[in-house]
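Example record

The entry below shows one chain as it appears in the dataset: sequence first, then structure tokens.
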Amino acid sequence: MRSPNGTYETLMLALLALAAGFVAPFELAAQTSESNKGRQPEALKDTGVEYKLGQPVDPTILFRDEDNNSIAIGEFFDGKRPTLLSFNYSNCPGQCSVQLEKITMALRQIDFDPGKDFQIVSVSIDPNEQASRARQTKEKYTKLYNRPGTESGWHFLTGQKEDIKKLADQCGVKYKYIPHQKLFSHPPVFLLISPEGKIVRYIEGFDYISGTVKLALVDAAAGKIGSPLIFLTYVAGCFVYDETTGKYSMAAVGIMRLAGAATAIGLLILLVPYWFYRQPKAGAKTGGPADSNILNPDAPPAGVS
């Protein structure tokens, strides 16, 4: 017959074994998590964005537009309007749709018009995509944008694998094809290209705030689009881009410059009329009889001939 002490020891051993079995999976999961820390998912390896601000884009790279016409990327760099450029593909299972829908909704909230103030260019990273498919994608997003008359500012391009890769490399956009999933892995990013064809700004992710997009377009156009007030705020440097937040913020120095200029203009508007009306009018007499005698002592008194 087992002693009370033996029964107690057996019970304690059973409880310890149960606790060990309960804790072990969590320790293993923690070790696995620690070992995977810093590792990038396989689908995201060799993809991402390398900033190449200020770099020119080769204008001779050829593509096909949604009507299957041959077009060089440089034809969008007309010296007048900036270009909002992205790399997508029409058969993307989800990411591209989210990206394009969100930028479309952001563009609906600003008063710049595609075709007039800027251009939107989406280059398909799928070399097998046909122009007819790109045309369907264009129709989808111009309908969502719902601003008739701006269709000429939207462009969905297809091209050869080498040409797509060349443009993407120049823009610092890294993507790859995953054969077993039959899809492309690529970063969600928009580039702002200057009217002369240089990379000005990157907007990454899916959080496209309309104010940020508008200021990025103004930045890319060097203040040449929008109202005179927008031009003044650009020249004064009232807004600066913060790379850490991906947003524009107000610069105190720029605001002070603009306020100083406004004060100077206001003073001129008030003082110029005052100075003008103080000046004696042409042909007006500036002095009475006393003045004449002072200037010419030998002249007879007033009223004496």
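Notes for this example: The mean pLDDT is 78. Residues 227-278 form one domain.
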